Amino acid sequence: MAAVLESLLREEVSVAAVVRWIARSTRGSEDNPGEAAALSSLRPLRKEFVPFLLNFLREQSSRVLPQGPPTPAKAPGASAALPGRPGGPSRGSRGARSQLFPPTEAPSTAAEAPLARRGGRRRGPGPARERGGRGLEEGVSGENLPGAGGRRLRGSGSPSRPSLTLSDPPNLSNLEEFPPVGSVPPGPAGRTKPSRRINPTPVSEERSLSKPKTCFTSPPISCVPSSQPSALDTSPWGLGLPPGCRSLQEEREMLRKERSKQPQQSPTPTCPTPELGSPLPSRAGSLTDEPADPARVSSRQRLELVALVYSSCIAENLVPNLFLELFFVFQLLTARRMVTAKDSDPELSPGVLDSLESPLFQSIHDCVFFAVQVLECHFQVLSNLDKGTLKLLAENERLLCFSPALQGRLRAAYEGSVAKVSLAMPPSAQAVSFQPETDNRANFSSDRAFHTFKKQRDVFYEVLREWEDHHEEPGWDFEKGLGSRIRAMMGQLSAACSHSHFVRLFQKQLLQMCQSPGGAGGTVLGEAPDVLSMLGADKLGRLWRLQERLMAPQSSGGPCPPPTFPGCQGFFRDFILSASSFQFNQHLMDSLSLKIRELNGLALPQHEPNDEDGESDVDWQGERRQFAVVLLSLRLLAKFLGFVAFLPYRGPEPPPTGELQDSILALRSQVPPVLDVRTLLQRGLQARRAVLTVPWLVEFLSFADHVVPLLDYYRDIFILLLRLHRSLVLSQESEGKMCFLNKLLLLAVLGWLFQIPTVPEDLFFLEEGPSDAFEVDTIAPEHGLDAAPVVDQQLLYTCCPYIGELRKLLALWVSGSSGRSGGFMRKITPTTTTGLGAQPSRTSQGLQARLAHAFFHNQPPSLRRTVEFVAERIGSNCVKHIKATLVADLVRQAESLLQEQLVTQGEEGGDPAQLLEILCSQLCPHGAQALALGREFCHRKSPGAVRALLPEETPAAVLSSAENIAVGLATEKACAWLSANITALIRREVKAAVSRTLRAQGPEPAARGERRGCSRACEHHAPLPSHLISEIKDVLSLAVGPRDPDEGVSPEHLEQLLGQLGQTLRCRQFLCPPAEQHLAKCSVDLASLLVADQIPILGPPAQYRLERGQARRLLHMLLSLWKEDFQGPVPLQLLLSPRNVGLLADTRPREWDLLLFLLRELVEKGLMGRMEIEACLGSLHQAQWPGDFAEELATLSNLFLAEPHLPEPQLRACELVQPNRGTVLAQS
Amino acid sequence: MILTKAQYKEIAQCLVSVPPTRQSLRKLNQSRATLLSIFSQEYQKHIKRTHAKHHTSEAIESYYQRYLNGVVKNGAAPVLLDLANEVDYAPSLMARLILERFLQEHEETAPSKSVINSMLRDPSQIPDGVLANQVYQCIVNDCCYGPLVDCIKHAIGHEHEVLLRDLLLEKNLPFLGEDQLRAKGCDKTPDFILQVPVAVEGHIIHWIESKASFGDECSHHAYLHDQFWSYWNRTCFPTNIVTLCHSIA
């Protein structure tokens, strides 16, 4: 590897040739023969060059970057390996490869133990332990090596270090494993210095088979000396290598020399001591930033060359993760100081250029120079970052200093940029609204199931609200707080149908909550929450930004975060985990798969590149938005599908190896995938819809377990993705190919996927990448979705929040607080509030349809959307109109027919079902009119709407065509629905009307029939019924007692009360039937108390009782109320109930005259029939009474019965003035 | 009438020991409606807290025996009412308890809820005359529970709904009433949904529900739980106003 780099540095080969050599296995004809010869000899190593280069750079920079944010572990980030780093603890949770330094481990061992784990195998005893993936790889190759290699190894034991076992041939070219030994300065006190080996390993041709894991090996242990890659250029190229490569012997010599040189060069500890345990912020203060000066760059030419190679690799997508490399470069750019505090930087003579013997980065100046060189090559990517990042870049003084030209371009890009990325708040939970069409009773097997569903809905939202309230509280545990409730709820979901209902709700809620209102529209303010909306727009903006900063999480996941469930998603994950219901998971997977298929297949508007008039930009806003909605929904769904689907296979234990793995593979390969993602991917690529399909597929795969990438099925997918990745060369832009930002999105998500712990690290470099060959035969239209500018920065940053780490890095540089681990970038939860309207159905065949298609093809896409929109709305309105007119008419007819039927058949009317059948058979034929009416409606309404929505300047012919198409589509839509559903609709409505009518007919026909409102002149000033009931209740309670001696009512009050009752009954405004019933009952109770003379009267003690005349007057008022004003039934028979009559028994002397008077009046006014009263009196005799009372009662009833049937007015009049017979009777 | 939270607490404190009868409430003379409302709310909270202890079979049995002994001594005395006041339980609920127990004894099969309710509404149906009178006395003397009070509450709710409707009509705010909403298939509905939302003191109002009782925190919460969340869950009406006769500021 180093040979390549070296020959490059010696200018033996050109950069272009090298890159060609790496990227394409074939030798380009344009290469000059010398180059070709030099490179072809190294051919077997071709695949290892990029990992080598990346590791080399990380290694070189390790002195510079220990204090910056960690470079992710999977990538060859040197600084990431420092134990006790700020990122350490948080990274620990991220997955296998990221768990370099679990916080629990002591710093000394922490550096090594996980490394072995990473390699999957730990071999080599003692301190000379294998390191990481390299070890594995070497192990594999070592076993295959011919004896010579082994012998060499054995013989080449380091003089100063324990030698390795034969089976553990180390990789000499790996600087991490083999830092020049002598250069390691004594570590700080208390720190164990990791042991090092210097056993050189010959590199043989067989190595081409081995897995180039170097790239992913852990960065060197923190005490990296001013490492000199001298070992590299002296690498033994082993057997079969061309002459020119040095022998191992020579190399060892070099090393020895190197070692002897070292102590003089760097006598001071290189380890940043304060880093080890101390919290970081303090460190930031103790260090001063070193200014970078372009004049002090040590070896420009060399740096330029390496930068060029590096940039070319990035540009050719030979590196796994574009943004990770950018992150690294930004780290270099913002490096604060070299870690080694060398007393004197040895001034390098210009002559040392030709080798890698001297460190690549000798000073901050070198780093910055290199970074700027690389950034210059990637201006295009930079210019497509968000505005905030651009601003920080453009304002970076180092950049200005080293490359004013680049700074100028960045400034221009910044000024021209509209890519403001909103870091919108996740929205508050919005419940999925009750969906009458799916959530109604008809979709459930039984009332009980429906009821259960409703209850579950409530429980679900209760749980959700509780989570919202508590999940941020420390110590609150989802499982503890809600687990049992969730499981109880799941337990109720017995029927399969209930599961599907619940899953639908779950999924809808998921989509609704986990999408934020910002969408992809690029709005900065988004939809503000209520509190903020009170303020003016200006203040609102500031507040919003402030809130954004305040709400930022303390630490974000770095440039390669593991898959997580931020915000609300956490709820759904925890819900699934807590529910731990097999049925639920299965239904959820079914539902998610279905929805993913549906959304993935959604026909999104496609870009017509010819359409370049002014409106196109405006139009694209909407289309981007729609795309963003679909994409984000898909990603969310796929994430959860992946989560649930791979849930049973994931666990904390390390991936199995050996036979166990084989048996698992054999087993798993039998299991059909939950969703046929391979086919979907292939189709997506063919249809040029990768920009839609790949991002969600990545989300899905990010949850795969360790075994998945080994399965043939998924391996195919990964290979496809790798090829796609390689083919997405950003600099190649051509008509009909993928847009820049689309590519950037795909590169970002794929790069992220390749860093996921479960994706095998060798996958990326193992795959032979004949990128030229990646040409899927597209069956799609010329311009698929990939060619449309559907992605904007908002969407990019929403999908890949880790890109924001770049900005954070720059901001840290500005703020000067590099030690702080937090930043103000936060993850964006993507969202949108718009629904995913179904595309209008298209007439597929027929000339007319083709004509319409052709017509739209020539017009701006907005025209098509307008027409389709109009058609959709008018079609829908048409159905509503028909419902409100034709169907409503039919229902009225049905009602009148029913009335007739009831009249002719009498009260009973017959069986309702039969009635309904008769009515429907009469009315449903009229439904046929609906189609004609619908057609007419669409014809009438569509043209106007199209005209109103299209620009005034639309040519007449285009307009009329558009109108016609709209009419056609609307009619088609409306008629399709009507012809399918009109009969059922009529039937349903008539059925409802019939049951309504029958119900109305039912219980109290008379009362319903003649219910009157209040008179026209009524001003509704009558006392309120509630007040009256309450007043009467008070009187009743007074009468019934217990009461204080001074309590009572005045006769005037009673009279007033009855007067008010009359008013209230006459003004029906506030009266509801139950209130009237109670008033009626209370008035009867009152009458009984009057009759029994039980109402305590206020006043002088003599007047304790109501005067007879007053009592009669009050009874008269009551009688008149009953007769005239009550519209509901009055329970008058209660007057003769044993209880009320019994009241008389308590009075002494008993007075029967009022009762007799009342009975007579009742009969006279026709309120009760004589027979009815007689019956009541008769039943009274059956009760048990005191002897004398029973006698008196019998007399009363005889008296009443003996009276003439026709009352005489005169008699009644005189009764009022003279004591009547009842009194006599009572007194007798 | 709007009270501060502190005022409310003070009043509630004072009302804690008052039984829910007409005589005791006579003492709460000023601003009677409000006080009554507060009292009613506090009393209901109290009853909810103590409900269970009155419903143990031992408690029921002892109440019943005390009732029987009482009426044997003097059937005309307010035995049941005094018993309720003594054990600090709502008279109507005590009446129900005793009635249930009585029917159990006399009819062998456990009486259905609807039978009990109907007897409480119309004590004339109670087979035992003395018990009928006792029950009736409890009901008319109870200011917080019982069919009459329920009816009053219902009537107040209805009245306020009508008032609200008139106000909406007067202000020319188009709305959908409960009936229309039911017809549309919503299973739980607020009183009114505004077809065009309005802003009231900076809050967007989508729907209005009238509750003619004192809006203390607890009942707000209870309503939220029983009713409003259901609207929120099951309907399409995000924000709301709840009108209350009296409320804490």
TrEMBL record, chain B:
Lineage: superkingdom: Eukaryota
A GO cellular component entry from the record: nucleus
Keyword Nucleus part of the UniProt annotation: yes
Annotated keywords: Cytoplasm, Nucleus
GO biological process: erythrocyte differentiation
One Pfam family, short name: TPD
Compartments, record wording: Cytoplasm; Nucleus
Protein name per Swiss-Prot or TrEMBL: CDAN1-interacting nuclease 1
The species this protein was found in: Rhinopithecus roxellana
